[in-house]
Amino acid sequence: MRRIFLFIAVSLLSACATQAPLAPSPLPSATPVAALPTPSVAPHSPSPAPLLSPTPSPVATPKASPKPQLSDAQGRVLIAQLLPPKIGDREGWIDDIHSAFSALKLAYTPEYVCALAATIEQESSWQGDPVVPGLPKIVWGAIEERAGKYHIPLIAVQTALLKPSPTGKSYKARIDSLRTEREMNDLFEDLAAEAKNLNLPLNMKNPIRTGGPMQVSVEFAQQHTQVWPYPYPRKGSIRSEVFTRRGGVYFGAAILLQYPAPYTDMVYRFADFNAGRYASRNAAFQQVVSQLSGKELVEDGDLLSYSNGVPTGTSSVQSALYAVAASLGMSRDEILRDLKQEKLVGFAQTELYQKVYALAEKGGKRWPRASMPQIDLKSPKITRKLTTEWFANRVKGRYETCMKRL
């Protein structure tokens, strides 16, 4: 029996984890916000950035005189104007979006409100606890696949899962009736909590990495609260807050909007939401490095290779840059020093970034400062070929529809 439960937990806890584009003037920017850790929301698990101090950092603003900031009351009116007219509990959504903007100190602009609304619509179709079609089949399929590797019949696993769970229902019954990610997260939390009583490994963690109406990264949410206070009272963990509508909108707004993005087309923010902050800027940088070095690079927005959050080995981008180090007039140590800022806004001000573009544009050609990350999205919930570019363009279409409500 011990072996069966060990197998069950490992199977469940490894089978269902899921996740995350120039006009002449920049988009409206938020009020100054703290430098925050890069979210890990992308299916390809972008490298995490170190936690930073909450000291506000300036955000680029348009050259023209800035428009007066809307008050909280005016912001609520704007949100009510821009949200789709026919969504369930519309007033509740307005409340949650309004409180997120206020708590995160984001500017109330049509662009920001529509960016958030479009992302919510894309990720959950305005469902506070999104339903995942065929979720029991996904879970059982993953368990059966793993069972085969251990030569354990699925029926034996299902029998073991007849053990009552803390809700009173058996684990098998809960799997059979799974509808939403929140239910799946609660199931895994109960299994992990019982690991000790079942004499199972103590280091097992809930594998659900994203959830809620904006598919927010649990890791991002946990890191965010270390540098920006969570504004709502809570009974459970930050993880559990991610799976609520209020918490999901709050952390989703933080991922999407609470950082100084150097883009003049909102589509690149949407790409970053899926692939990791500054992935679009970094993908354009990879494009230029590939041209200079003659080495083919995957333009995914990751410039370094990481292990447990620490740069390790030599990435393909590093190798390409080392090949042109003499032309750049930089040593390998200097190149690596600047590459370590790849997840931060300041990377674009580094010596490396400036010299790479200066060298590439020596002949007069202008290279883009943002490019769509080329990433295939993979998840047990995805049944067809999808990419970050597909995601970003889908959200932008919804964004443009929202902006027309003005």
UniProtKB/TrEMBL annotation:
The residues that cross the membrane are none
* Region (Disordered) location: 38-71
Q: Which Pfam families match?
A: DUF1615
Keywords attached to this Swiss-Prot or TrEMBL record, sorted alphabetically, are: Signal
Please give the PROSITE patterns that the UniProt record associates with this protein. PROKAR_LIPOPROTEIN
Q: Where is the signal peptide?
A: 1-22
Output the InterPro entries linked to this UniProt entry: DUF1615
Taxonomically, the superkingdom here is Bacteria
Compositional bias, Pro residues, is annotated for 45-59
Q: Does the keyword Signal apply?
A: yes
Give a yes or no for keyword Signal in this entry: yes
- Kindly provide the name given to this protein in its UniProt entry: DUF1615 family protein
